[in-house]
């Protein structure tokens, strides 16, 4: 009788143990699926490179403030947000002229100035001195980061090499880093290869300059087009949403597609998913 009881007790204990073990495996699996544990390939990533305008810094709010402050000093009334949007609208077309060969290599500061000269009259800001115009053009050197950017980058820097991979020229990106406290390990980007994204040479250069394979580098951006181009070169991709990049009525990318390896709501979320 006692032997049979001991047998039944042992069997029940084994069943409970198996159930607990199964529950533990299910919980672990749930954590992995929800981002609690990074996918195995993450271990091969050595560096993260970042789109900058819109992904790391809030260009629209920053430029709006600078334009409105200048207009106030001049006793003028200017819609700073519309000015910022009009200025930014010439960003891709002007780079396209360089990419097509219509223009020789021209760094972004100069392209910004070309666009600025065209729109000053449209917004009744003509008549600025050369010093005032140059100072306004350098507003792009003083862009403020998104609230999570510095803290998230600081976390990511503990585990990965971090660098911008921007279309901005080196002096612009360096000044921006000093202004906003962005803790880059180095500065990479278009000017080093005299090509503009989405040309594949820019993405390949990130791996080449860091002596890494493309799959050891992850491109981080809020723009799916940027990430698709990086993916085509073999880089890993992380999509970080910036719902307010283009203002409350803008239409930013908000949903990941098949080109994305990781999708995050901000840089701190990305750090958590990457195990930092």
Short recap of the structure:
This protein has 276 residues and is an alpha/beta fold. The chain has helices at 2-33, 59-73, 80-89, 91-99, 108-119, 130-137, 149-157, 170-180, 190-193, 200-209, 224-233, 267-273, and strands at 47-50, 161-166, 188-189, 217-221, 236-240, 262-264.
Largest sheet: 6 strands, parallel
Give the end-to-end Cα distance, rounded to a whole number of Å: 57 Å
Strand content: 5-15%
Instruction: Let me know the average pLDDT.
Output: 89
Descriptive key words:
alpha/beta, 50% helix, single chain, 276 residues
SSE layout and pairings?
Blueprint lengths: L1 H32 L13 E4 L8 H15 L6 H10 L1 H9 L8 H12 L10 H8 L11 H9 L3 E6 L3 H11 L7 E2 H4 L6 H10 L7 E5 L2 H10 L2 E5 L21 E3 L2 H7 L3
Parallel strand pairs: 1-2, 1-4, 2-3, 4-5, 5-6
Helix pairs in contact: 2-3, 7-12
């Amino acid at each position: 009788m006692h032997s049979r009881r001991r047998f039944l007790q042992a069997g029940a204990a084994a069943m409970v143990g198996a159930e607990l073990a199964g529950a533990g495996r299910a919980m672990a699996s749930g954590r992995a699926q929800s981002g609690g544990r990074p996918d195995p390939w993450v271990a091969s990533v050595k560096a993260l490179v970042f789109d900058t305008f819109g992904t790391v810094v809030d260009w629209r709010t920053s430029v709006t403030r600078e334009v409105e402050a200048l207009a106030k000093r001049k006793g003028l009334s200017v819609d700073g947000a519309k000015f910022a949007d009009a200025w930014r609208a010439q960003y891709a077309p002007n780079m396209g002229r360089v990419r097509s060969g219509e223009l020789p290599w021209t760094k972004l500061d100069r392209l910004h100035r070309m666009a600025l000269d065209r729109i000053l009259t449209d917004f009744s800001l003509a008549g600025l001195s050369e010093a005032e115009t140059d100072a306004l053009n350098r507003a792009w050197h003083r862009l403020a980061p998104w609230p999570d950017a510095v803290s998230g980058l600081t976390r990511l820097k503990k585990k990965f090499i971090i660098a911008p991979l921007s279309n901005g020229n080196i002096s612009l990106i360096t000044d921006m880093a000093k202004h906003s406290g962005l803790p880059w390990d180095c500065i990479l980007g278009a000017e080093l290869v005299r090509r503009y994204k989405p040309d594949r040479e820019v993405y390949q250069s990130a791996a080449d300059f860091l002596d890494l394979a493309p799959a050891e580098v992850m491109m981080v951006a809020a723009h799916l087009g940027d990430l698709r181009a990086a993916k085509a070169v073999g880089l890993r991709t992380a999509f970080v949403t910036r719902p307010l990049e283009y203002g409350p009525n803008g239409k930013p990318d908000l949903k990941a597609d098949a080109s994305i390896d990781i999708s995050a709501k901000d840089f701190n979320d990305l750090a958590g998913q990457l195990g930092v």
